[in-house]
Write a structure and sequence with these properties.
16 strands; four-stranded mixed β-sheet; alpha+beta; 483 residues; Glutaredoxin; four-stranded antiparallel β-sheet; Immunoglobulin-like
Length: 483
């Protein structure tokens, strides 16, 4: 875990802290140079992957060949000050996280036979990059905190907080042992990252506590479940918008803390995912750039669930509040894609090669209602839907309904094993690449599970297809299409 209190670390004065915070937001977009030599290479290339858009996940990959002597040279752009969340170096079947800032010029020394333990960096930005490598050995990947926190979700609030304090202390000890050469701007950045990561874990407690205890993704909450949320402060600062943890925190605190403050915790009626009560509070409490991000994020996130007319009306409201927003072109593109997958538009055709080798196209299923399910073997919510999917599948057995499951797994063995273990009946398609899956990108899939319902004529039948767990609704929709 990576949680500690900022005033216990390397900040010497409040003036230095303020200067560092200003520096974080002032770092401009730029490039990172990465070159070096790999001993005992296990692949012929080096790749860096990350996402550079925060309101609509868009993966980017930059790669280069590894020469026969193991040397390589790569340059890639980054759009944040310090980018750690999805900045991942891949070689062969191995990968490692990197933290790098704009302008870094890093020389990597690596023995692929001892991948994680041999990583060393030299050059501009090496202090931060080496901190990353050491942190990986001590804690696992930079996004691995769930494996430390998940066991704590089983505990009551007092034991959760006590266990969490031990993780904070471990992180603080690591920083004291390894942070002497780090630049103050990074210390401030890292400190803020840990703070908001902790807030997010506290905001998730009410849900994951019940989920872990019941073993179900579908839970019922009561007001007392939100008690820990009261301890999460409202800590909004536009300077922290470069942090993914801050962005997640802003979203989570309005959904949980503001919802918790209501007399009832029943699901509110929403428009673009934001209850009008919460929207009013958000405009009052959030500083300008954070508010702009928050509302753009929700418009993008919930666009799939609403009609084109609703999305266009919400975009018009967004433009009225933020007339010169940098997010507007992204949202316009999102709505344009929404139109292409809306009710009555032709579904996108693609090739199907099933596990047993049979080949066909989606268009070969014309004359049948098609329920299209994008999933991955590593996706817990996807797996939780399959018992319900079986119920729907059995209901329409021997009728003109095809259930097509598109896996975005990179690991084909995991895909095939999951099909067998979970007993998933239907037509199976492998489109590897995770978020760069060819079929997934064709259908604009930014998260899994994702669902589409296609009528007998090969057209999209509904703007937002129900999940299998919404069994009656999905069954009724399909029955209507069979008439």
């Amino acid at each position: 875990m990576r949680y500690f209190t900022s005033n216990t670390l390397l900040h010497e004065t409040n003036d230095l802290l303020l200067a560092c915070l200003s520096s974080i937001s002032a770092i401009a977009q730029g490039t990172v140079k990465l070159h070096g030599t790999i001993q005992n290479p296990i692949g012929d290339s080096v790749k860096v992957k990350y996402s550079d858009l925060n309101i609509d996940y868009t993966p980017r990959t930059f790669g280069t060949k590894v020469a026969k002597d193991g040397s390589f040279s790569l340059e890639f752009p980054i759009t944040k000050g310090y980018d750690y969340t999805t900045l991942r170096l891949e070689h062969g079947d191995q990968e490692t996280d990197i933290i790098a800032t704009t302008g870094a010029d890093l020389t990597l020394k690596l023995d692929a036979k001892n991948f994680d333990s041999s990583i060393r960096y030299e050059g501009k930005g090496a202090e931060v990059a080496n901190f990353t490598a050491k942190h990986l050995l001590a804690f696992g990947g930079l996004n691995s905190r769930i494996k430390y926190v998940q066991p704590l979700y089983k505990k009551d609030i007092a034991d959760f907080e006590a266990g969490y304090k031990k993780l904070e202390d471990k992180e603080a000890d690591f920083m004291k042992a390894n942070g002497a050469e780090l630049p103050p701007t990074f210390i401030t950045y890292w400190d803020a990252h840990l703070k908001y990561a902790k807030y997010n874990d506290m905001l998730k407690y009410y849900y994951f506590h019940k989920m872990v205890l019941t073993g179900s993704f579908t839970i019922t909450t009561v007001k007392s479940d939100f008690a820990i949320v009261a301890d999460v402060p409202e800590d909004f600062n536009d300077k922290d918008l470069v942090l993914d943890d801050y962005q997640q925190y802003v979203d989570a605190i309005f959904y949980t803390k503001m919802k918790w403050s209501l007399d009832s915790v029943a699901e509110p009626k929403t428009q673009n995912g934001i209850d009008s009560f919460i929207a009013t509070i958000a405009y009052e409490k959030l500083p300008p750039a954070t508010a702009e991000f928050y509302f753009a994020y929700h418009l993008s996130r919930y666009c799939k669930q609403y009609t084109v007319a609703d999305c266009e009306r919400n975009l018009s409201d967004f433009k009225a509040h933020f007339p010169d927003s940098k997010y507007t072109p992204i949202l316009e593109q999102k709505i344009a894609f929404k139109k292409s997958v809306s009710k009555g538009m032709p579904a996108f055709d693609f090739d199907i090669q099933m596990p047993e080798g049979k080949q066909m196209k989606l268009s070969d299923l014309k004359g049948k209602v098609v329920y299209l399910d994008f999933w991955a073997s590593w996706c817990g919510p996807c797996r939780a839907e399959f018992p319900h999917a079986k119920e729907v599948h059995d209901h329409f057995k021997d009728r003109d309904v095809a259930f097509v499951y598109v896996s975005i797994d990179d690991d084909l063995d995991s895909w095939k094993k999951a099909i067998e273990k979970l007993g998933i009946e239907g037509i199976h398609v492998s489109s590897p690449g995770n978020w760069t899956s060819k079929v997934g990108m064709l259908y604009g899939v930014k998260s899994v599970p994702s669902y589409f319902l296609i009528d007998k004529n090969g057209n999209f039948a509904i703007d937002d297809a129900p999940r299998p767990s919404d069994t009656k609704n999905l069954t009724d929709q399909i029955e209507n299409l069979l008439k």
